[in-house]
Amino acid sequence: MRKQYVVLALALLAGIGLLNLDRVKEMPVTATPVVSGNEEADYYGDQLYQRQYNAAGQLEQSFRAATLQHFPLSAVSHFTRPRIITTAEDGKMWQIDALTGEALDQDERLTLREQVEIRSINTPADDPITIHTDWLNYHAGQQTATTDAPVVIRHPATLTEATGMTLNVADRTLQLHHQVNTRYVPQASE
């Protein structure tokens, strides 16, 4: 009697193994899984592009990233080379670039890290503004960028350094939080 149960169990295991083998053949792995800690990404994307329009149908902001990886257990998405372009009501545009970024699933905040640069992109050539920092949080719904890290602001003939800032793109205001130091740097005469 025992021999029959052993044979039955082996037959069931062999059948399950064959069914699983057929399923694996039908659904081949198309990408190498990416693991963050002990968690594997559940979806990936390359060349991500998203646009957001205001109530009048005008482009308000766009988001690009070279790659996206989403991790379901930690509810976070990781991006490489994220770029945000925002347009204020007066038509002025800002571009925010970084090497990496991440966003929590239930949050409108995007945290950008490594070589973060904010620049005005449709201003006259003699009036560009660039802001550099190590990291910042961008709040998409409010169109604000905030950081507590050191920032360096370059504008023709001035160099400003501070610790922490809040940039409100919609109304084009910049608030520097601490240790603000501005120097006049004259342009070279031609």
Explain how this protein is built.
It comes from Venatoribacter cucullus. GO terms for molecular function: glycolipid transfer activity; lipopolysaccharide transmembrane transporter activity. This is LPS export ABC transporter periplasmic protein LptC. Pfam families: LptC. This protein is mainly beta. The chain has 2 domains: 1-30; 35-184, Lipopolysaccharide (LPS) transport protein A like domain (lipopolysaccharide transport protein A fold), CATH 2.60.450.10. It is 13% helix and 55% strand. It is built from 1 helix and 13 strands. Strands 4-5-8-9-7-6 form a 6-stranded antiparallel barrel. A two-stranded antiparallel ribbon has the order 1-2. The longest helix has 25 residues, at 2-26. The chain is elongated and about 95 Å long. 19% of the residues are buried.
Largest sheet, strands/sense/barrel: 6 strands, antiparallel, barrel
The CATH architecture of the largest domain can be named as Sandwich
Strand content: over 45%
**Which strand order does the major sheet show?**
4-5-8-9-7-6
Q: What top-tier CATH class of the largest domain fits best?
A: Mainly Beta
The named CATH superfamily of the largest domain: Lipopolysaccharide (LPS) transport protein A like domain
Radius of gyration: 25 Å
Number of strands: 13
Q: Uncertain runs with pLDDT below 50, 5 residues or more?
A: 23-33
Q: Output the structural class.
A: mainly beta
Query: Which bin fits the share of residues in helices?
Result: 10-25%
- The backbone outline, from C-alpha atoms, is elongated
Mean pLDDT: 79
Q: What count of domains describes the coordinates?
A: 2
Helices and strands, in order, run as: HEEEEEEEEEEEEE
Per CATH, what is the topology of the largest domain? lipopolysaccharide transport protein A fold
Number of helices: 1
